[in-house]
């Protein structure tokens, strides 16, 4: 059985000062729930990570970064290494979010390197893939997903605790969500690519999250799909009550 994972992606939101009231309200909302069946994680901006981790760890919540560099150290102005994140207790990171691909020159190649070094360093990579509206409209969804996934797994003999997030670009922050069927189809396709390379035993353990305007009103239908193991949630993770409601639905 794959344990569900609900991951919030705060993007460039939330000040350090806001964190303690956020976690207080969030944990109050879930005070009467037994949460052991669902893993909860927030991907916070770099500067917020240390404080977020301090507040979240006692609540059984994980904190991840939103990016990382693949080199250990060196002349990479503005970048943060895996070692630096681990030093403050952060052991997971998003990789290749579509906003990083779109605005910051992230490529399949850099995503592949990052995933590889994360796995070697005991850092959980949450690797993001997804097609654009044009890809979908020209029936290229599977082709694009295959290219992105092939790049990620090309150098991996073992996928360790890799998590994949399927995030159709046209659904991110747009209010448009993939239908349950569209999402399931993409998730099943992604899982089949892992089955081809690593076999059924490995692929059946891989967690694949759905992202793209996931919210309290649609998360249940998505999670009912056999290949959807959780969510990567942007907008709806900024409000503690909304995200807590999604966690309750995932339980
Ligand atoms: P959204 O963002 O939930 O606001 O669409 C999801 C994401 O970008 O991870």
Rounded to an integer in angstroms, the radius of gyration calculated over CA atoms is 17 Å
Give a quick account of the main beta sheet: strands, pairing sense, barrel closure: 8 strands, parallel
Write the H/E string, N to C: EHEHEHEHHEHHEHHEHEH
Strand share of the residues? 15-25%
* Strand ordering within the main sheet: 3-2-1-8-7-6-5-4
Query: Which ligands, by name, code or SMILES, are bound?
Result: 2-phosphoglycolic acid
Ranges where pLDDT stays below 50 over 5 or more residues in a row are none
DSSP, total strands? 8
Q: What separation lies between the terminal Cα atoms?
A: 14 Å
Structural class: alpha/beta
What is the averaged pLDDT score?
97
Helix content: 40-55%
- The outline comes out as globular
Specify the number of helices.
Answer: 11
Outline of the structure:
With 251 residues, the protein is of the alpha/beta class. It contains eleven helices and eight strands. It has helices at residues 16-29, 49-57, 82-87, 98-103, 108-120, 133-137, 141-153, 180-198, 200-203, 219-223, 240-250, and strands at 4-9, 38-43, 62-64, 92-95, 124-129, 163-166, 207-211, 230-233.
């Amino acid at each position: 059985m794959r344990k569900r994972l609900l991951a919030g992606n705060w993007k460039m939101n939330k000040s350090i000062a806001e964190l303690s009231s956020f976690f207080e309200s969030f944990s109050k909302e879930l005070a009467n729930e037994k949460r052991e069946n669902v893993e909860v994680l927030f991907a916070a901006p770099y500067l917020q990570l240390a404080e977020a981790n301090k507040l979240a760890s006692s609540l059984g919540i994980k904190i991840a970064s939103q990016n990382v560099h693949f080199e250990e150290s060196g002349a990479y102005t503005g970048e943060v290494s895996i070692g630096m994140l681990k030093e403050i207790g952060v052991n997971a990171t998003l990789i290749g979010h579509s906003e990083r691909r779109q605005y910051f020159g992230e490529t399949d190649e850099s995503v592949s390197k990052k995933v590889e070094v994360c796995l070697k360093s005991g850092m959980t990579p949450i690797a993001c893939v997804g097609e654009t509206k044009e890809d979908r409209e020209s029936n290229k969804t599977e082709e694009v997903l295959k290219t992105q996934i092939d790049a990620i797994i090309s150098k991996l003999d073992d996928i360790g605790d890799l998590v994949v997030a399927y995030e159709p670009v046209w659904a991110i922050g747009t209010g448009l969500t993939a239908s349950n069927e569209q999402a399931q189809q993409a998730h099943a396709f992604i899982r089949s690519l892992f089955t081809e390379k690593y076999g059924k035993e490995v692929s059946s353990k891989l967690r694949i999250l759905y992202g793209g305007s996931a919210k309290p009103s649609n998360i249940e239908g998505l999670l009912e799909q056999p290949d959807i193991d959780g969510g990567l949630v942007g907008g709806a993770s900024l409000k503690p009550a909304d995200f807590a409601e999604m966690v309750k639905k995932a339980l």
